[in-house]
UniProtKB/TrEMBL annotation:
This is L,D-TPase catalytic domain-containing protein. The keyword Signal applies. GO terms for molecular function: glycosyltransferase activity; peptidoglycan L,D-transpeptidase activity. It comes from Methylobacterium haplocladii. Keywords: Cell shape, Cell wall biogenesis/degradation, Glycosyltransferase, Hydrolase, Peptidoglycan synthesis, Signal, Transferase. Belongs to the YkuD family. Residues 1-26 form the signal peptide. The active site is at H165, C181. GO terms for cellular component: extracellular region. Transmembrane segments: none annotated.
Amino acid sequence: MRVSRILLALVAVAPLAACQSRMQTAALDDDSAWYTGTMPDKPFDVPLVDTARLDPKYRRQTVRYTGAEKPGTVVVDIDQRHLQLVQEDGSARQYGIGVGKAGFSWKGEARVGRKGVWPDWSPTTTMVSLNPDLPRTRKGGLDNPLGARALYLYQGNRDILFRIHGTNEPWSIGEQMSSGCVRMLNEDIVDLFERVPVGTQVLIKRGGKARV
């Protein structure tokens, strides 16, 4: 599938996203300029973003980690719009993220309870109450709000309905736009997905703290 066709599909369905925001006017100017090609994947190729369009601090990179968390921990900083995967050598693999609008962002401790490849999407009860016209489900694919991968966060055996997932709105990385979930570039969530197993500890911080 050509990138131009992929982009048309993404734009057409973006307003349906539950973990996503409404389409931003600036993004409509020239969506195709955000994409440079595709990365092979199954059952769909992953559209690749021109990361030169991102603020450098939101590009995937390795940074020094000064926190106390053990290697293998995922640390999400809502304020800084960063997700870090702590490494053994005192560094962290860092990714830029998009986060929830004011009043929608969650913070706390959780674990990766399950993982999804090109996952299906369904709105929460709250989302449906706010927008009864939302579709009740959407199959995984290029037009899906969860993107190429999703990490489902649990506390104990309970799905807390908070996700770390891909996005088809790359211009939203670094922004406070979603309905609460943490969104990443599709190529970044694919990279993270391969590095974190089910059971991985996840800390979501706001104001420098994960605990209420």
